[in-house]
């Protein structure tokens, strides 16, 4: 019963976050799990992206994609991003208010 409740509660959170972020770029939906809907991660291991400079975020993502910056998880997410998608992600998170 407890597991069923946790699954239902978690699903509700994911769906409500997805509805909240309707203006979010499509590729950002894969970022939500670690960085939060608006880039304000609540987990200390995952950096907050909200309010960061767009140029910094763009460079960081390109560096992950191109192998200059090492992190297995981020490299896996960034490896198939186009320059346009990276710019959209950077602009989106830069426009979010840091909390």
From TrEMBL:
<dbReference type="GO" id="GO:0009055">
    <property type="term" value="F:electron transfer activity"/>
</dbReference>
<feature type="domain" description="Cytochrome c">
    <location>
        <begin position="11"/>
        <end position="97"/>
    </location>
</feature>
<dbReference type="InterPro" id="IPR036909">
    <property type="entry name" value="Cyt_c-like_dom_sf"/>
</dbReference>
<dbReference type="GO" id="GO:0005506">
    <property type="term" value="F:iron ion binding"/>
</dbReference>
<keyword id="KW-0479">Metal-binding</keyword>
<keyword id="KW-0813">Transport</keyword>
<keyword id="KW-0732">Signal</keyword>
<keyword id="KW-0249">Electron transport</keyword>
<dbReference type="InterPro" id="IPR050597">
    <property type="entry name" value="Cytochrome_c_Oxidase_Subunit"/>
</dbReference>
<keyword id="KW-0408">Iron</keyword>
<dbReference type="InterPro" id="IPR008168">
    <property type="entry name" value="Cyt_C_IC"/>
</dbReference>
<keyword id="KW-0349">Heme</keyword>
<dbReference type="InterPro" id="IPR009056">
    <property type="entry name" value="Cyt_c-like_dom"/>
</dbReference>
<dbReference type="Pfam" id="PF00034">
    <property type="entry name" value="Cytochrom_C"/>
</dbReference>
<protein>
    <submittedName>
        <fullName>Cytochrome c</fullName>
    </submittedName>
</protein>
<feature type="signal peptide">
    <location>
        <begin position="1"/>
        <end position="21"/>
    </location>
</feature>
<dbReference type="GO" id="GO:0020037">
    <property type="term" value="F:heme binding"/>
</dbReference>
């Amino acid at each position: 019963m407890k597991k069923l409740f946790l699954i239902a509660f978690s699903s509700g959170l994911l769906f409500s976050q997805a509805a909240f972020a309707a203006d979010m770029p499509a590729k950002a939906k894969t970022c939500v799990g670690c960085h939060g809907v608006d880039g304000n991660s609540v987990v200390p291991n995952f950096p907050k992206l909200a309010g960061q400079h767009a140029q910094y975020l763009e460079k960081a993502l390109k560096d992950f994609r191109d192998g200059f910056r090492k992190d297995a998880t981020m490299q896996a997410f960034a490896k198939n991003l186009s320059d346009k998608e990276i710019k959209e992600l950077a602009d989106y998170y830069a426009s979010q208010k840091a909390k």
